[in-house]
Amino acid sequence: MTTNQKGLFITFEGGDGCGKTTQLNLCAEYLQKKGFSVLVTREPGSQGLGEKLREVLLHYNGPVAPTCEAFLFLADRAQHINQIVKPALETGKIILCDRHTDSSIAYQGYGRGENIKQIELLNNIATQDIKPNLTLVFDVSEEIAQKRVGSQKDRMESAGKDFHKRVRNGYLEIAKQNPTRVKVVDANLPIEEVFKQVKKLIDNIIQG
Ligand code: TYD
Q1: Is 13 touching ligand 1 by the criterion CB < 6 Å?
Q2: pTM score, two decimals?
Q3: Quick one: how far is CA 193 from the chain centroid?
Q4: Could you tell me if the CB of 157 is within 6 A of ligand 1?
Q5: I want to staple 93 with a disulfide (CB 3.0 to 4.6 A). Which of 75, 88, 98, 114 is the partner?
Q6: Which sign, positive or negative, has the C-alpha torsion 208, 42, 170, 130?
């Protein structure tokens, strides 16, 4: 958290098919009803240039070098922080962001095998050192995740079972290493049960 930060920055993370987007939307509704000014956003591709990068990252058919992939997600992040997140934080909004820095660590680091220390460093550059106040990691079994993703898979979702196992374990490792910021939510349960866990964590942070 930077010293001039007025708002709250909350990130939603987890493997493909973990159900975090549903929970993010429930959370937005919950906070808006309480009278907070909420901004919902995502990575990759929140708007403008980010949309173009998202298209390449999720749907480009040719070979993509792992380091190139890492830099493209980071490029999207740099633009997103500058254009969307930083200005919203300065005006005191609660920002709910679907994926952020931990996706790079889990997917490009643990998943693809890129150097994690280097990704952390590049994340700091891309984010201008702005850190989430809270990160929720939605953890779900392989079987449930696969069912939720379905058969229409994008480039990342098609990366294979072992890759997604490494991503899941990566997230759990990230949570272990950052116990204050990162909280694991059991996402195997029905939507309302998952949201009960989320609400508790959100209430804690807004009461602050
Ligand atoms: P998206 O359709 O937004 O999926 P989801 O609903 O699961 O978030 O696709 C984003 C994909 O990009 C997802 O497979 C995770 C991946 N990703 C990375 O590999 N690294 C990153 O830094 C980010 C932000 C996303």
Answers
A1: no
A2: 0.96
A3: 21
A4: yes
A5: 88
A6: negative
